[in-house]
Specification:
alpha+beta; 268 residues; 6-stranded antiparallel β-sheet; 10 strands; Arc Repressor Mutant, subunit A; 22% strand; 40% helix; Jelly Rolls
Length: 268
């Protein structure tokens, strides 16, 4: 993977992937505002799939599981301006502001494609990536500007940005059944279900009568079989969407489980 990144601060970067594609399973610790300069991205969540391209702007809320696949496009690299909206910075921004919290069904990815105010804010960052000596308050000013614009264009966004609660203990079975396709460390699954790693493993064994890794592999293979046989998807797409890291490992595990390679099932 030929990855390049230039930073104004640790919260603002210009990110570029030159390879054919790059895939990662991610849980964001901070809200992430992204503006596309070139390339395409496919974001797969438990209940939705999103596609973004040049000119698109979107916000990914923190603590959301997602499989992200980045592609170059039309001979151009996958290039984005990325701004992290950290909890600490948002606490400072919302200090003294009265926000009437309303329960959200489920945090989602918010799209602000081609919005002139947000595009102007993010485009104004470009010259700073080529500078060596940047005024310390520039990043802070730009992030505050971006938050203010988000609040103007979407009245619901305060319910996301001003929510500083950490995940509480939730039903482990329901959560894992919805999110098994995301290839994250067990510590992350524990955190998102409100448990320490030790408690997560103990509760998992009690609920499923097996280890997390064995259960995850089995569930991913079952989903892969369904997508190949019923949805007629390509083995490469299925491999990454169900949580495997590379095609060779996926093919080996699939053949061991079902007696034929993913390509053979796909051809049938």
């Amino acid at each position: 993977m030929d990855y390049k990144a230039r930073y104004i601060t640790e919260d603002i970067k210009l990110s570029s992937y030159e390879d054919k594609f790059f895939k990662s399973d991610i849980m964001f610790d901070h809200h992430m505002l992204v503006w596309f300069l070139s390339g395409e991205t496919k974001i797969v969540q438990a209940d939705a799939t999103y596609y973004f391209k040049k000119g698109d702007i979107f916000l990914v809320p923190r603590n959301q599981l997602a499989t992200i696949i980045n592609y170059p496009k039309d001979g151009q690299p996958h290039k984005t301006v990325v701004m992290h909206l950290s909890v600490d910075r948002l606490r400072d921004f919302y200090a003294g502001k009265e926000i009437k919290h309303k329960p959200l069904k489920s945090p989602k990815i918010y799209s602000f494609s081609n919005h002139p105010l947000l595009e102007s804010c993010l485009a104004s960052l470009i010259p700073y990536f080529d500078m060596k000596d940047i005024p310390e308050d520039i990043a802070s000013i730009k992030i505050i500007e971006a938050i203010s614009i988000l609040r103007t264009v979407n009245k619901e966004i305060d319910q996301v940005l001003a929510n500083f609660e950490e995940p509480g203990k939730i039903n482990l079975v329901d959560y894992m059944e919805r999110n098994f396709m995301f290839n994250l460390p067990m510590e992350k699954f524990g955190y998102l279900t409100g448990r320490s790693l030790t408690t997560f493993k103990r509760d998992f064994k009690k609920a499923f009568s097996t280890t997390p890794q064995r259960w995850l592999t089995q569930k991913r293979l079952e989903l892969a079989y369904y997508q190949l046989a019923e949805k007629k998807k390509k083995p490469l797409d299925v491999c990454y969407e169900v949580g495997f890291e590379n095609l060779s490992h996926f093919s080996f595990a699939f053949k061991k489980q079902f007696g034929l390679a993913p390509s053979q099932l796909s051809e049938k």
